Amino acid sequence: MDNCTTTVKIAFYTLGCRLNQYDTEAMKTALPDHINCEVVPWDSDADVFIINSCTVTGKADQKTRHTARRIKRNNPGAKVVVTGCYAQTQPEVLSYIPEIDGIYGISERENISDWLPQLIISKSQVMEVESFPKNMRFKSESISDFEGKTRAFAKIQDGCNLRCTYCLIWKARGPARSRTVEDIVEQIQVLANSGFIELVLTGVNVGSYGDDFTDKVSLYEMLSTILAQFPELRFRLSSIHPNEVDDELLSLFSEYKNLQPYLHLSLQSLSDTVLQRMKRPYRKDIAFSVINKAANLLPGFGIGADIIAGFPEETDAEFDETYSFLESLPMSYMHIFQYSSRPGTKAELMKQVAPKIASARAKKLRQLSESKRNLFEQGLQGSWREAIVESGQCSPGHINATLDNFATIEVPETCVAGTLIKVNIGPRENGLLTANDVQTIENNGDES
To answer: Where are the beta strands (DSSP E) in 310-383?
Structure first.
């Protein structure tokens, strides 16, 4: 294989979170040098198809299996690989699928330069999935590109120690481990050199950043460093728990213009009894305090949250409590999940809410989310805000742009994807904000 001059075409498909998207790019970066590899689109005639899987829900598992079978059916001579969270937690299930040629866990995924050449010549299914060591340290390739993306994700942390009763991610991702500040700075610089002007700082549990270091470094300290060092870049913080958002962290949004005014909370419920069954590390009073403080930081500050509908044993009274409190809070967006039982979790052994009831609750929460979004966006109309232009047409003559507070607005398709603009926000049309006026922003921050 070392002397092979034939080009090996490799296609990647990513399911799930931003972290997985980063990890896919890291795999591309780590492709072996001693064989001629070419990354091709997923719908191409590839030699190896690699699925970076998710296991947050049963539907995510199902999609991985369906995708693997479909790809093999359409490309019988190709190798099909499943890696990522589903491969780490349920490799035995995947091993019974004959269409899958390779199964690689989280740690093994990072060693693609070692296993890819072996996989190509193997005549049988290969499975490499190991458990995580207790004193595991952060390891990841630095990446320089996000194909087709206008903003890049910078991985600052991985793993989780919380072990919530409904979640498999602590099993899938291993113990919480943080990336050093120096390595984060280096990664940011590489992405900045590639032309990205907005970065999302992401991880499994970003609020735990630095807890695993011998010499403690807090999320606040790390953020302060990079915000000051890269004033020309825009930064977003990915999902965080309410109890990890203190006044010190909130102060950064006011102190640094390049920290975008949006906070996404991993909330899940606002019923204390449900939160207790979930084994969440906070109660609703903390969430209330954080959300109201954040909303009053800056005009138009966006606040999103993840909410689970139909958690095991959730009563009508507990659901009504969550709904009522959410209704009273200044939210701009809610991502609603209908509870999905995960094998091997404590919640799987609890009394399950009837699917019909859970579905009705999820629908009611989504309607509330939409009304909250409408109200929030009405309050933005007439104001000027910065936005980054996205790729892809949203309606004839228009493309999407994302405001600093994470709201979406349509702008003329003459705007260039990946550039920063300033927009005067107009009314909503067909479910999207429109722009009354658009101004370009030069690299030095001057408008034209």
So the answer is: 333-338
Length of the chain: 448
DSSP H/E element including 347 = none
Cα separation of 219 and 206, whole Å? Answer: 8
Query: Which DSSP string corresponds to 145-202?
Result: --TT-SSEEEE-EE--S---TT--HHHHH-S-EE--HHHHHHHHHHHHHTT--EEEEE
Which among 410, 386, 385 has a CA at the least distance from the CA of 397?
Answer: 410
The CA distance from 120 to 2, in Å, is 12
344: left (phi over 0), alpha (psi -120 to 50) or beta: left
Q: How many CB atoms lie within 10 A of CB 403?
A: 23
With beta carbons less than 8 A apart as the criterion, state whether 209 and 219 touch.
Answer: yes
Q: Quote the tokens at residue 157.
A: 């942390």
> Residue 98: what residue type?
P
Determine what percent of the chain falls in helix, strand and coil, rounding each to the nearest 5: 35, 25, 40
Q: What is the pLDDT of residue 369?
A: 97
Q: Helices then strands (H, E): number in the chain?
A: 14, 19
Model confidence pLDDT, tens digit, residues 84-110 = 999 999 999 999 999 999 999 998 988
The pTM of the full predicted model, rounded to 2 decimals, is: 0.91
For 192-205, how does the pLDDT look when each residue is reduced to its tens digit (9 = 90+)? 999 999 999 999 99
Tokens 């509908």 appear where?
309
- Cβ 444 vs Cβ 409: under 8 Å: no
Q: With contact defined as beta carbons under 8 Å apart, do 361 and 78 qualify?
A: no
Q: Which H or E run includes 433?
A: strand 432-440
